[in-house]
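#struct-help
A.M.: can someone run this one for me? Single chain, 367 residues.
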Amino acid sequence: MDRTTRAGLLRLTAALRLAELGGDQGDDMSDETITVTVGADIGNATSIIAVQPEGGKVQVVKLPTAAAFSLRLPETLDRDDHVFMNQYGLASLGLGMTALRWSTGEVITARGGADRYGAFLVPFVLAGVAAAAGSKVRRVIVPVLAVTVPAKHHAQVHGRVAAELRKTHQRVYRGRPVTIEVRAVRVYQEGQAALAALAEKAKGNTILIDGGGGQTHVALARDGKLRTDPVTRETGLQKVIDLADDVIARLHGDRRLTPLERYELERALVAKQPYAIRHAGQLIPVDGYALAMYDEVAPLIISDIQSIVPRWQSAETIILGGGQALHLRRHYEAAFPGQLTIADRPDELNARGALRLAGVAVLDEVS
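D.P.: on it. Structure tokens below:
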């Protein structure tokens, strides 16, 4: 992580401490309390939080992994706005689309490195829990919260992650006080959690490719259990978008994609829709640059994976999960013809798997 990003992360951590609610929370809300189990995957580009209420359906909350504490909010918030406020009723932290749309200053993503696995991930988890709980709930009890981190960082950060999350969090979320009591935290490796979500499909010898935004994890499993630790490669979807951004800047006067434009471009690519940015009074189509980078870089990512796969010749099935399954599907299918299975809801695998590892046996989801 570079010096600028680290400084932004330190400022954000300070803002999180200020956002902690103290004193009287008022008595204008219901006293409804619910108990939920939570699985969370705070990724390079997207945070996915799966929340299972007792006796209810799983709610999956997705938001861009972006934060900002200098905001100019509209009078009415959209459904996908996530905002924490201080005890004076002022917005102190915006997450996801709120940060991308309404920030008046720096948007912090903390991409790369182990630094984001600590205080940075806390508000994303809490926002997902508060959003899933609904507007009438004042207190949420979380007996078990399971969160995933990259395998290479697990030994370094699992204790820190647990310490940051395992406490009683008092916040004002979208104008309503909410207390979220996290009693136990389990920290799993990405890939390990993804496999747990595929237990019924991973029969026999299976190669799991968990292709994310910052990294790609590859592991061999047999009948749903890991036979090897995940092998991590520092190649992912966000680095492909970085290369497309470099091309755009080189051809269009150092014009860089904003964080919001990056997110919108990725959504357009998944939907197979064109996307353009405004520069010097003109609309500049940029989706073609990203697609060209997909065609150039995807074979390199896959070739690196294939250098791992031959070690496990006995594998009968290859399962692809993660965001790369949404963006690079045709490249993977061409590389593993007749052998590749694309996981259902591939970008949610780690969050859903963490939820299963936390003790939720049935994933009856709604979006």
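A.M.: thanks! The two ends are 33 Å apart (CA to CA).
D.P.: also worth noting: Residues 21-29, 361-367 have pLDDT under 50 and may be disordered.
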